[in-house]
Write a structure and sequence with these properties.
Helix content: 25-40%
Shape: globular
Strand order of the largest sheet: 6-5-7-8-9-10-11
Structural class: alpha/beta
CATH architecture of the largest domain: 3-Layer(aba) Sandwich
CATH class of the largest domain: Alpha Beta
Distance between the termini: 53 Å
CATH topology of the largest domain: Rossmann fold
Oligomer: single chain
Strand content: 25-35%
Length: 379
């Protein structure tokens, strides 16, 4: 296995693309992309299965990081299914960290379409102006795609004049890595951006459900506990060096996610992580459901809902919001109560300038809880 450090520069991504191309066609070893500035840690150990092409380390949101083994067949199946869903091959623009599965898959899709991706230099972070300069390098008549996290989409809508103009010309903008607020999605659509909401994870070679509909060959089921089960050719081979975790998460060609979901006429709605459910006074509340209601309120541009300990209720719902003067807490409270019931109404509120993030752009719920605890202690 070859470890390839990437630092967000086009040169480092080009080196990773060369290594990925060799891994996909079998002329080179499996590749493990890592952030160049990541603290040095021992690499994963264990025997790679036949056909292994990429090992992606997860963010460790539910514990110690796991090392997901993706075969060339799984990566190719995912890329081809994406190509079919989006309407054919095209050029790809990469503004994401390449060490994450979403970045890897942009590179794989680009390679299979016959041209390397246009890479935005993100060594100093994502900037809408940099995105605009990157897209300007594409051939004028090119059909092209890109993949963003919700935070990047929001920044382009807020500050990216040239970037927004470029994004309007994109055949499809995949948005994943974190839940996309319905209000942000509608704002992007109203701005003329062809947004496609994706759901998936490293264990499924990235997004495998687009706008609630599984890609060709992908199966979606809900188990007795309400958890989402994903199957099909894009499922990973398991976790490198961790047979117990592999046996617990992968069975019968399916991956048991940590997310709760609902199927309505074969369309998937993700209800949030099972581990995030707040039990308050004996009632179960899904933070993602509360976030959807709050994000639709006037003035709200960011929200994260968590459970915090409470002596009387065991736990209560708490909300951290990014909002302007149009936000009215009383209206938000009434909206949550009307749609989700009294138990879902946040007992604690905190307004911040931005939601703490981790990894590729997911809300850092542990940090949100720390902010709430610090605020409560100071009161």
């Amino acid at each position: 296995m070859r470890t390839v450090p990437v630092d967000g520069s086009p040169a480092s991504v080009a080196a990773l693309a060369d290594a990925l191309a060799a891994a996909l066609d079998g002329t080179g070893p499996a590749v493990r992309p890592v952030a160049a500035d990541a603290p040095p840690t021992p690499g994963p150990t264990g025997e790679l299965p036949a056909g292994a092409a990429v090992v992606v380390s997860t963010s460790g949101s539910t514990g110690e990081p796991k090392h997901v083994v993706l075969t060339a067949a799984a990566l190719t199946a995912s890329a081809r299914a994406t190509e079919a869903r989006l309407g054919g091959p095209g050029r790809w623009v990469l503004p994401l960290p390449a060490e994450h599965v979403a970045g890897v898959q942009v590179i794989v899709r680009a390679l299979l379409a016959g041209a390397p991706p246009e890479v935005q230099d993100v060594r100093d972070g994502f900037r809408p102006a940099g995105f605009a300069r990157t897209t300007a390098r594409l051939p004028r008549d090119a059909r092209w795609y890109t993949s963003l996290v919700p935070t990047q989409l929001l920044r382009i809508l807020q500050h990216g004049n040239a970037a927004l103009q470029a994004l309007r010309g994109c055949a499809a903008v995949l948005v994943g890595g974190a839940a996309l607020d319905p209000a942000l999605r509608e704002r992007a659509l109203d701005a003329g951006v062809h947004v496609v909401t994706t759901y998936g994870m490293s264990e499924t070679a990235g997004g495998c459900v687009y706008d609630g509909v599984p890609l060709d060959g992908v199966t979606v089921d809900i188990d007795d506990d309400g958890r989402i089960l994903l199957g099909g050719p894009t499922v990973a081979a398991g976790y490198l060096g961790d047979p117990a975790a592999t046996a617990a998460a992968f069975t019968g060609g399916r991956f048991r996610t940590g997310d709760l979901g609902r199927l309505d006429a074969a369309r998937l709605t993700v209800l949030g992580r099972a581990d995030d459910v707040v039990v308050t006074g004996g009632e179960k509340v899904a933070p993602a459901a509360v976030e959807r209601v709050l994000s639709a309120q006037p003035g709200v541009t960011g929200v994260c809902v968590v459970g915090v300990p409470d002596a009387e209720w065991g736990a209560v719902v708490a909300a951290v919001v990014v909002a302007d003067e149009a936000f009215r807490r009383d209206r938000a409270t009434a909206a949550v109560r009307a749609e989700l019931g009294r138990a879902a109404v946040p007992h604690r509120w905190l307004t911040v300038d931005e939601i703490p993030l981790r990894g590729i752009g997911k809300p850092d719920r542990d940090e949100v809880r720390r902010l709430l605890s610090a605020t409560t202690a100071a009161e």
